[in-house]
Each structure stands twice: as C-alpha cells, then as structure tokens.
UniProtKB/TrEMBL annotation:
This is Telomerase Cajal body 1. InterPro entries: SWT21/TCAB1_mRNA_Telomere, WD40/YVTN_repeat-like_dom_sf, WD40_repeat_dom_sf, WD40_rpt. It comes from the Eukaryota. Residues 1-35, 124-144, 409-443 are annotated as: Disordered. Pfam families: WD40.
Amino acid sequence: MEAEEQYVEGGQPAEVGTLSGEQAEAPAEGEEAAAGDAAAAAGWYTAFVFPCQPQPIYRATQEYTSSAATCPNTNFLKGVKWSPDGACLLTASDDNWLRLYDLPQDVATAPVLQHPDLLPREEQAEAAEAGGASSSGASPGAGPDNLVPALRMHAGETVYDYCWYSRMSALEPVSCCLASTARGHPIQLWDACSGAPRATYRGYNDADEPTAAYSLAFSPDGGRLLGGYNRSIYVFDVTRPGRDYKRVVTHKRKNPESITGIVSCLAWSPAGDVFAAGTYTGGLGVYDGRTYELLLLLSGTKGGLTQLLFSADGNYLYTGARQDAHMLCWDVRHTYAAVYSMERPTGRTNQRVQFDIEPAGRHLLSGGCDGSVLAYDLATGQQVDRRQVAADTVSGVGLHPTLGLLATASGHRRYGGPGNADSGSDTEETPAAATGAKRPQRPANSLLIWRMEQETLCHGAAADATTCNNP
C-alpha cells in the first residue's frame, strides 16, 4: 500500500510517510489536564455572556481577494470550522481552495483591531469612500492582515463540504487530518500537517459511475466516514480507503417512510448511537448508528436543509435551511413537532449560513444575510443578542471548543462586471434584497477571530447563585 493510504490500528488515519507498524505516542498527562479534571470534578464550567460586544483580534481579508481570471463571482467564504482540539481552523472559498490557519500563540494578549464594519453607518460610508469601493474582497480602512494561512489545499472544483477528523489532536500528528468533497471528485483525506493528500474514498452511482458526495461527517470514534449522495448515504471505513463502502438507501419508491433528494447535511450525536440526515427537499431523518435503520422521520422545514447539529446530551437536534428564516429545535425523544423556532435573516438566500452551539450548551450563534451574528438562549429559543460584525453576509460562525473565541466568515456570491458588483441572481438573493438593509456596493470577504466575554459558573443547586468573573 502506498504511503498516502497507510493507517494504524484503531481506526485513525496515518500520517503521510508513516509506516503502518509505527504507533503514535500517547500524550503525556500534564498539569493542564490535571487542572481540567479537578475543575470538572468541582462542577465548574465557563459560558459566554450575552449581550456582549465582540472584540476583533485577528483578520484575513487579502487572502480572499478575487480576480476575473480565477474567481469572477467574488471569492466569498463558505463557512469556517475549528478543529476539535481548537489548535487551528479551516475555511473554504469560491476559488476552490481550502485554507488552514493556526491559532496564534499571543491570542490571550493580542490587541483589539480597528474593524470598520463595527463603526456606525455614517463612519462606515466614510471609510468606504476613503478606501474606495472595489471588488477585491477587502474591507476598506481595515488595515493589514495579521492572520496568514499555514496551509493551502486545492480541491480541484467547487467545494461541497469539508470536515475535521473527529478525534484530531495536535499532540498526535497521526490524527491531524480533514476530509473534503468537491464537484466531480471523490472524497479526499488531507494531512493537516503537510497539506498532502493521504487517501481517497470513492462512491459510485447505480450506473457504476463515480460520483461526488454532497456532505460529510466523521463518527465520534473516528472509525467511520459518512458521505451524503443522491437518495443514499455511503458509510466508509476510515481504515479502508478506496471503493469499499456500505450503501444506505434513504429513499425507496412507493415507500413514504423515507427522505427524498440529495443528502445535503449529516450530523452524529455525541454518543455515536444515532445520526441525522437532511436533504435539499426538506426531508429529515434520524438513523440508528449501528444498523443504519430509519428511526424517526421529521417534517416541518420549509427550505432545503443545509446544517444539522445535536446538543451535547444528544436529546435535541437543531436544523437550518436555505430559503427559510427559521431554525428549528427538535426533541428526538418526543417528535410530534418542533419544540421552538429561532428566526434569522436567511429567508431569501440559497447560501449556506452556519450556526454553532457554545461548548457549555447554553447559547446558539448564527450568521445572517445582513452582516450580523445572532445569539439565542437554547432554554427558551429567544434571541438574546445581535451584533453587526461584517459588511456582507456572515456565512460562517464557529465557537472555539475551550477558549472565549468566535470565528466568523463573510462574503456572498455576486454576478456581473465591476459596475454591477452587487447584482442579484436567480439562485441567490443579495443581502440587501434579503433583509431590506442598506449595504455597501462592495464585497467584504473576510475571516475574523473575535474575543468574547465569558463567565465561570458552577453545576448543581448553587449554579444560579454562584458566578465567578472571568476577565
């Protein structure tokens, strides 16, 4: 077997050039791990505070400048995802490149940047006039970037989806990898240390023709990789790249108990006992993670599903869809109807707009077509905060798994020449058309990392009365 398709025992993909007999060194138990265990035993945890004003500390905009030759429709970002250990983050953009960023070491002391999109409307207009309205994707007056990608990986074609290996840890290079799927290409497994491809997972349709997956999801134990296809889910064994997979048919003719269409999004429960699958036709099903049988069939979404996410305890499922201004919360134990809905400004766009849940499980954050980030209390579904963070659609939000950091990705597809940079399309409405808000006549493709306010709380009966300030 070639080096790029070598694996070690236990279901973890091997590092490029690593012999199959070599074992990765187990991380030593350090003082930080002991301190974390002591805090967990005491029942203390940190949570985000809302309302709060996020502080921008890192920016990458020049990396997403566009040109007519490489990216004629502006190089907008397609979301952002933190690695499971929080050591780095990953983005995809319309130029078909995946970019990996390492978290800077001075994150705790980094100064606050002067970000023009946080200024009042009048000052934003002045900054735009001073900087000049251009289609480069940079924010006028934003200053130089201080966040540079550590790796760039070319997907070859339009990126459909990408995800981190679920057990990725920077302490174990063998686990540092990610998967992506692009139009006309098989699922690619990339080495997150070198940017080199490790292996491919190939799916075939009924005519025995290779076909691309539309969505991806690693199982929590890292042993399986799910790929969403047309009316099917393919289950790949991570240790066996190539054509070997199990096909789970999601739609059968004359069978109403199924979900129709392309499987556009997938999500595992934290325990790995069940997973959810959504389609562009609005179909939503919950499957057994062992037998792959359909357990629940949920209905109520208006648009095509673009993201699914389970709560930390696995009892609730949150869904978001395109052409739909509501995110829904489902209790998978009582599935008669959605528990509640959360409104966001995405009712007239086909663009994927991400949402994420904080590690403490108290709040959900989502982007919007008006350039804002919205926060919701998951106990009630009520909106508790709304902050303007970009001059364009916020397509991606990601909360750091351990630190008080928020990553946002912005940008929107636009068609036309330099004089028509903000023209609409038949498939994706512009942010201005979607929300009625006045937006600058320029794209704002950017990746930003924000410092958020946190507080330390205690589990149990004293949780409501005990709060420690966390600077």
